[in-house]
Amino acid sequence: MTERSSSLPPGLVLRRASAKDIWSIRKLVLSEKLDPTQLRWQQFWVIESEGHLVACGQLRNFSGAQELSSLVVVPAWRKRGLGIFLAKHLIQEATLPLYLECLGQKLAMFYTRLGFAAVSWQDLPQSLKFKFGLTQLGKLLKIPVVIMQYQGLPR
């Protein structure tokens, strides 16, 4: 399925990822120093321009929850609303309580504007506690990781 939207600049297409996208997705994720170990192209949506990926994001499935992850926009395409557009699309696609973890307050503010709120590790569903438990180790090393849950759009 391919979607065109007036919210995307002309010439850009939002679509589900395909097997041919995996190396481009890996390259984008690694370029931002994000966790490359849980990349499943079947869970990704991508935005492309003239056959080249300019953004990607993943909706990972867990027991009783989902995680918005690996959201990356190519640097040359930033500040055009692609990250917001893709994040909103992934939020709409979610069918279970939605969580994410992000590094730093700047990203936390970005996700707060989209309806996410910080939550404690203790409030996570059991299926996410192990995965996000590694975040707790980061806090000991003074890495500013924030765990967030989608609460709906702010009023």
In total, how many beta strands? Answer: 8
Number of distinct helices: 4
Low-confidence stretches: 1-6
Class by alpha and beta content: alpha+beta
* N-to-C series of helices and strands: EEHEEEHEHEHE
What order do the strands of the largest sheet run in, or round the barrel if closed?
A: 1-2-3-4-5-6-8-7
- Strand content bin: 25-35%
* Assembly state (oligomeric): single chain
Described by the principal axes of the CA atoms, the overall outline is globular
In round numbers, the mean pLDDT is 87
User: How far from one another are the termini?
Assistant: 32 Å
**Helix percent band:** 25-40%
Largest sheet: 8 strands, mixed
The radius of gyration computed from the alpha-carbon positions, rounded to a whole number of angstroms, is: 15 Å
What does this molecule look like?
There is one protein chain. This protein has helices at 22-31, 82-93, 105-113, 126-140, and strands at 2-3, 12-16, 44-49, 52-62, 65-73, 98-103, 116-118, 145-150. The protein has an 8-stranded mixed β-sheet with strand order 1-2-3-4-5-6-8-7, sandwiched between helices. Residues 1-6 have low confidence and may be disordered. With 155 residues, the protein is of the alpha+beta class.
